[in-house]
Amino acid sequence: MISTEDILTITENVFTTMIDSPVELDNDESDLAAHAPITGCVQIAGEWSGAVLVQTTGDFATQAASKMLMLDQAEVCIEDRQDTMAEIANMIGGNIKSLVPGPSTLSLPTVTTGEDFDIRIFGTTVENSVAMTANGQQLKVIVCRGCE
After folding, report:
1. Measured at the alpha carbon of residue 64, what is the angle toward residues 85 and 6, in degrees to the nearest 5?
2. I want to staple 40 with a disulfide (CB 3.0 to 4.6 A). Which of 16, 28, 59, 85 is the partner?
3. pTM of the entire structure?
4. How many other CB atoms are found less than 10 A from the CB of residue 58?
5. What is the dihedral of CA 34, 107, 89, 91, to 10 degrees?
6. CA distance 120 to 13
7. Domains plus CATH for the chain?
């Protein structure tokens, strides 16, 4: 099982390196997907199969895109937010992939934008879901494992 500590450490490393943003655990277990306009997802296939989802607010995606792309926040468009979330999901997913039995491959990232949606990765169950905050914004990393 991918532990909460593993997910937090990986997320902290990615966010500190790429967007200079500290990350903290958050006890809020609300359904962020219903209120989060953006979710990045990568799937892992091989000896271990599953998916990694990164959900956050549009405000945080804008802040992250601004830092990663070196743009003023007012210049950030939806495509910039989507590209940034795809890259964040790819980096976090790649690091999680290194912790699971291999060999395995990482899919291209997908990004869902909008409110009040439900994402279901068929054939998986949630192995761990970690709520965090970064720059005062909610963030959740969800690891789904393929059913055996």
Report:
1. 65
2. 85
3. 0.92
4. 16
5. 170
6. 27
7. 4-146 (3.40.1550.10)
